[in-house]
């Protein structure tokens, strides 16, 4: 996989921390190609990730594929306390790497969704920063934090890490804020 990425001019950097459970955030998320690149990153680092995806992705004809690569369907149109459900699943597993795109969509929004943060805090797991940066054609794993519960302070660290990362469609990057915490 690394050879294929190199062929297209991409480099893969970083190292996955040695933790049994974590939330991996992938940003910026500005294009459908992000999923393909993140999937390639997954194979480069031999990660066994689970991720949440819009339930409509899991219908035929490709639903089997999205499940095969770790997808967990989520119905986003109703309030179903996804955070609580995911925290419960994390606590029941010996090992889990949950990959989430905090932007939640490929279109520009005024803030990131905060579910990734609340999942990590309630499950007591670190948040690992994974990314793509088209300005340097880099896919990677960067820093990680153990969230403190002080969302503003932790978001400052996250914002500092991602501030120079550029997505495939940089004009669609959402502000690295969380709802109500500006």
UniProtKB/TrEMBL annotation:
Any Pfam family the entry gives: Acyltransferase
Keywords: Acyltransferase, Transferase
Phospholipid/glycerol acyltransferase domain span: 23-132
Single GO term (MF): acyltransferase activity
SUPFAM superfamilies linked to this entry: Glycerol-3-phosphate (1)-acyltransferase (SSF69593)
Pathway stated in the Swiss-Prot or TrEMBL entry: Lipid metabolism
Domain of life: Bacteria
Family annotation (PANTHER family): 1-ACYL-SN-GLYCEROL-3-PHOSPHATE ACYLTRANSFERASE (PTHR10434), PHOSPHOLIPID_GLYCEROL ACYLTRANSFERASE DOMAIN-CONTAINING PROTEIN (PTHR10434:SF9)
The protein, known as: Lysophospholipid acyltransferase family protein
Native species: Kangiella marina
């Amino acid at each position: 996989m690394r050879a294929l990425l190199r062929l297209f001019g991409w480099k893969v950097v970083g190292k996955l921390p040695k933790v049994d459970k974590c939330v991996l955030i992938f940003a910026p998320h500005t294009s459908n190609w992000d999923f393909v690149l993140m999937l390639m990153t997954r194979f480069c680092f031999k990660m066994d990730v689970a991720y949440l995806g819009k339930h409509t992705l899991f219908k035929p004809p490709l639903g089997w594929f999205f499940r095969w690569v770790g997808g967990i369907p989520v119905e986003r149109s109703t309030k179903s306390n996804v955070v609580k459900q995911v925290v419960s699943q994390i606590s029941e597993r010996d090992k889990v790497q949950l990959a989430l795109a905090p932007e939640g969509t490929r279109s520009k929004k005024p803030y990131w969704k905060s579910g990734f943060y609340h999942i990590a805090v309630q499950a007591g797991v670190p948040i690992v920063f994974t990314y793509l940066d088209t300005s340097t054609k880099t896919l990677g794993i960067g820093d990680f934090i153990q969230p403190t519960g002080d969302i503003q302070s932790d978001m400052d660290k996250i914002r500092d890490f991602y501030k120079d990362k550029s997505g495939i469609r940089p004009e669609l990057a959402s502000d690295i804020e969380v709802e109500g915490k500006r």
